[in-house]
Specification:
Elements (H helix, E strand, L loop, with lengths): L1 E7 L2 H12 L8 E6 L18 H5 L4 E4 H5 L14 H11 L6 E7 L4 H9 L5 E4 L15 H4 L2 E6 L17 E4 L2 H14 L10 E4 L11 H17 L4 E5 L9 H10 L3 E4 L2 H4 L5 H8 L3 E4 L3 H8 L5 E3 L2 H7 L8 H10 L14 H5 L2 H11 L8 H10 L11 H6 L11 H4 L2 H15 L1
Parallel strand pairs: 1-2, 1-4, 2-3, 4-5, 5-6, 6-7, 8-9, 8-11, 9-10, 11-12
Helix pairs in contact: 1-7, 7-11, 8-9, 13-14, 16-17
InterPro entries: A-2_8-polyST
Length: about 450
């Protein structure tokens, strides 16, 4: 028998896997095991995806639903990877625990260089691997070098296809075949989730403000995120929206929710904070698009914001992407390409420019930009992108596009924009680099 083990960290990941299965993107298997896991600081404190409303509509695609966290407890799922000598012991244990017997296995995982995916790839050596991305991270370079014995096992990269025409670069250095999940399959899955969602506000065609937990993720301070949301409310009111629904990122209370309500009332608008407790769980923006039919959706770089435009034709706009680009550190931060794409492709919510549905050609026009950013992020992983980066930086670098790069980063890579073209070969010279390192060492001494 052939058994597929599919890992998922939440409802959105499970929904994408369900749509991929419905559309045949993951091939055939005799048995499919959904392996749920949490990668937060305290995964045991968060409700599992299986407890979310509408999960039963996804459950039918899988033969079994198991918990990865329970199998390795008390080890933390996001950081644990078995020692090489222990891998055979773990394989025997997990095969017996999950009833895998001597089945031929296939892995379907997210973010191969982090978390449970690394551990499973190390335990089940030689197993074919398919990788999926739930958002625009599919267009980013691989976050770190993958061990060759793991990377060569990757067959497919499944992604939602929210930016058609844009190059897919994640794991492409290993020849992973990019496969976009059809929009029709994704809409059908989210429709099933929407039918089961309860406790939603009875507001028709509101402006949907999507919370993304930027402070919790360390991308902004709490005060910065508060001001970002207050500014979004003011901009929406300036555009004439009198009904706003704020959807927090998770079930935890938002400290500035009352401030948002007061700000909206002062501007003659009504703001409803979605109560995750009454809804039973955090509600995906995709579900809200189906149930509330929003007139506009606003966020920073959430996958739900991209889906609102690509899947449901909702006009969208971004807030705070400029501040995020400025503050993201290190430069190779996983969020850099998603934030760059949101800033470059989607209109900004400034109180003057109306939100818009993004056309399919808008993202394709930014392929050169993404290639340049990808090389600057991971020059060792994707050295083949240097010519594309040099072409873009020598012809398209303007006051507007400088926001996507850092001068020190370009200088360290001898890229156009900082180093004069006639001196670039010197900066790339190995002999000159060795001399510079010796000079710095002498200066420190």
């Amino acid at each position: 028998m052939t058994t597929q083990i599919l890992t998922a960290t939440g409802t959105r990941a499970t929904a994408l896997l369900a749509a991929a299965l419905d559309s045949g993107r993951l091939g055939d298997a005799d048995r499919r095991v959904l392996l749920l896991t949490g990668t937060g600081t305290a995964p045991e404190a968060a409700p599992p995806a299986s407890a979310m409303p509408g999960f039963e509509s996804l459950r039918a695609r899988f033969d079994d639903v198991l918990s990865y966290d329970d199998a390795i407890a008390p080890l933390h799922p996001s950081g644990w990877v078995p020692r090489a000598d222990d891998a055979p012991l773990w394989e025997r244990h997990l095969r017996r625990l999950w009833g895998l017997g001597d089945d031929t296995l296939e892995l379907v995982v997210e973010s191969l260089h982090t978390g449970p995916a690394r551990a499973l790839a190390a335990v089940f050596t030689g197993t074919p691997v398919d990788v999926y991305a739930t958002g625009s991270g599919a267009h980013a370079p691989t976050g770190a070098k993958i061990p060759p014995l793991t990377g060569t096992r990757v067959r497919r990269l499944i992604h939602p296809g929210v930016f058609p025409g844009l190059g897919v670069r994640l794991l492409s250095e290993y020849g992973a075949e990019p496969l976009a999940v059809p929009a029709s399959a994704q809409i059908e899955v989210y429709t099933g989730l929407a039918e089961a969602a309860g406790g939603l506000p009875g507001v028709s065609a509101p402006a949907l403000l999507i919370g993304e937990g930027l402070a919790e993720a360390g991308l902004l301070t709490g005060e910065e995120e508060r001001e970002l949301h207050l500014g979004a409310v003011r901009a929406l009111a300036a555009l004439g929206h009198t009904r706003v629904v704020f959807a927090p990122h998770d079930a935890s209370p938002v400290p500035w929710a009352e401030a948002l309500v007061a700000e909206a009332e002062g501007l003659g608008a009504g703001l409803t904070v979605l109560d995750a407790a009454s809804a039973g769980a955090p509600v995906l923006p995709e579900v809200l698009c189906l149930r509330l039919r929003p007139a506009v959706a606003v966020g920073s770089f959430s996958p739900g914001l991209l889906a609102a435009s690509a899947l449901f034709g909702v006009p969208v706009a971004t807030v705070g992407t400029g501040a995020l680009l400025e503050g993201l550190t290190p430069y190779e931060h996983d969020a850099r390409v998603p934030v760059t794409l949101a800033d470059a492709v989607l209109p900004a919510l400034d109180g003057r420019t109306p939100p818009a549905v993004v056309g399919s050609g808008a993202a394709a026009e930014q392929d050169g930009l993404v290639a340049a950013v990808a090389f600057a992020m991971q020059p060792r992983v994707r050295p083949d992108l240097r010519p594309a980066a040099e072409l873009y930086l020598s012809t398209r670098l303007t006051a507007r596009t400088w926001r996507y790069f850092k001068r020190r980063r370009l200088a360290s890579l001898a890229l156009p924009g900082v180093v004069p073209a006639r001196l670039a070969p010197l900066r790339r010279s190995p002999a000159l680099r060795r001399l510079a390192r010796r000079a710095r060492a002498l200066k420190r001494g």
